[in-house]
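We read letters as residues; the fold follows as tokens. A sample entry reads:
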Amino acid sequence: MPLSPRVPDLPALDLLLSVIELGSLGRAAAAHGISQPSASSRIRYLEKLVGMPVLERTTLGSRPTPAGALIAEWARTVVDAAQRLDAGIGTLRDRRDSQLHVAASQTVAEYLFPKWLMALRARAPETTVALEAGNSAGVGEAVLAGRAEIGFIESPRAPKGLESRPVARDRLLVVVAPDHPWARRGTLTVDELAGTALIMREAGSGTRTSLERALAAQAPGRPPTPLLELSSTTAIKTATADGLGPTVLSSLAVDAELAAGTLKAVPVSGFEAGRTLRAVWPRGGRPAGPARDLYAIARRGA
């Protein structure tokens, strides 16, 4: 049930106990890190609530009135309980802050998360981080089930029940082996891309969902055809480099291979496949503790 409006707040009761313990309003104010006028105002507020004086001011300091002594006796139990509550909350926060569970799509987990983790380690070295990597659909399931406090996905939309915020951008590239016929082409058309069987990620992955949406907008009625479905980006890159067929992957995933010449990017005229990578968490909440720190790091691209 609601407390009576006559019940003083904890800071006022705590200050009263300090005045009685230290014998001076000035010393109590200093102990609480407030000015003496502020301390006087707090005590006057307490006296107004209870309807009687609680302190007697003398040339030697301050002492409780009979009513003030009785209120202080009751208040000590309340303040002690509040201190136990504060200590308990601190323990819960320490427990929360000592471990962070993250779920991330494979592109984020392999190519962005390591540098985010280094920045988090510098900020919170005592935090143990556990990463669950999978496709974007699996990330959403992990966050909704409570296995992860925060997740990072590549899908254009967050799963139902999750809040999402952008943290980075990348784009999809068509890549082939250096000796693939497309490697010698200047530019492909969207129709050629849509009409060719591709090495693809499994259904539910952010990369595949982004490709399907891009082709649905730019080549309506011509969804991509899988030549081979693999659940590992590394396996797709290996199969592509071995000449099995073309693929479409995140620019983040193929930067090293393009620089080394083991894969070649093929321009596609009119094919726009930029996308936003997102952080997700349960709807109605906000990241807290290390999850909040990781989200801030991801947003600034550290």
Remarks:
- The mean pLDDT is 88.
